[in-house]
Amino acid sequence: MNPQVASYLGEVQARLKLGPAQCARVLRELSTHIDDRVRELRLEGYPRDEAAERALADLGSPKAIARQIYEAHSQGSWQEAVLAAGPHLLLALLFATHLWTNITSVFFFLALAVAVTLYAVWHGKPSWFYTYLGYAMVPALVAMAIAWLAIVLGVRAAFTHDPAPLPVLAYVGLFVFIPLALWLLVKVFVWVIRRDWLYASLMLLPLPILLRLMLSLQPQGRLSITTRPALVGWESASALFLLLACIAGAFVRLRQRRLKALAIVMLAPVVFLLVWSTAGQGASQLSAVLLASFSALLFLSPLALEHPLGRPQLPWDAALLATAADDKA
User: Fold this and answer.
1) Cα separation of 166 and 155, whole Å?
2) Closest Cα partner for 56 from 35, 28, 73, 42?
């Protein structure tokens, strides 16, 4: 193949924010279109290199063609929008019916999120599954927090010469579990960022808000009302998750990448205010601001990490051959 065409296709691939299979399919179609145009120009008497150069000039810059391709293929159907909103809608229902206080209902919700995530990964990782992936990370995060708390209590017992709450082998298991779970979560986070930082932020969206509600829990299992007027009180948590469902659905339906990015960036101050509103007046002010700032930065971290992490690119021709093999199978 002409080096100019290969370089052009490589630049288009580097700018596409589509799934691997969809990206390979689009590149194959684009390659066929370029080959046809080069063939026409060759019949008109142009030399091979000049024909390739003119064919690429007719298409426009790789950046422009990648943007056009993205807008043509990134819009999800209404069915996909409903699927993306699904976990938020289900959680809104749990709060509306007060079933969130039932541990069985919460376990069922998290198990469903994990099951749907595994199903979606097995079936090509569609755009709607990232909202489920965010909730599927919650069990691992909670387990890590409990494991860390158990270790802290064990260390405290050792210093105070009290009996250890757990056997020694249990602590060995906890020390092994925490780094393994952290490695898995980081690996998933990096993978989603390399796929598209927008999906990573969409995945993280419910986590700070769940943290906001968990910090409001009282020992009796009720959510407290802070002395500072909260932006979103616990009694309106159902409406909050309905809002998240609308955001997720709209995100899937939007074509323009700029609008998606703008929506994500504009949500950062909302995340900050939601987490900040968990604390009351007085000594907790500083901790509330620090926690809220951390949550907002975590929400926007995919944007900052996308460029340093980069996106692994297979040679475009290898991707096309893999797709062709899948089609034949």
Assistant:
1) 11
2) 35
- Where is 198: in which H helix or E strand? helix 197-204
Q: Are residues 53 and 80 in the same domain?
A: no
| Cα 4 to Cα 52: distance, rounded to the nearest angstrom | 7
Q: Are residues 104 and 12 in the same domain?
A: no
Confirm if 209 and 271 have CB atoms less than 8 A apart.
yes
Torsion of CA 198, 258, 311, 19, to 10 degrees: 70
Token pair 């995340």 is found at: 271
Q: How far apart are CA 281 and CA 210, in angstroms?
A: 21
d(C-alpha 275, C-alpha 293), whole Å: 9
Q: Which residues contact 140 (CB under 8 A, 6 or more apart)?
A: 181, 184, 185
pLDDT in tens, the chain (329 residues): 677 788 888 888 877 777 667 777 888 888 888 888 888 888 888 888 888 888 888 888 888 888 888 777 777 788 889 999 999 999 988 888 888 878 888 899 999 999 999 998 888 778 888 999 999 999 998 899 889 888 888 888 888 888 878 888 888 898 999 999 999 999 999 988 888 888 898 898 888 778 777 766 544 444 443 433 344 445 567 877 888 888 888 888 887 788 888 888 887 777 777 666 655 444 456 666 777 787 778 878 888 887 777 665 545 454 444 444 444 33
Assigned domain for 318 exists: no
Residue range of the domain that includes 285? 74-309
The tally of domains found in the chain comes to 2
Shared domain for 53 and 66, answered yes or no, is yes
Residue burial 41-78, b: 16+ Cβ < 10 Å; e: rest? beeeebeeeebbbebbeebeebeebbbebbeebbebee
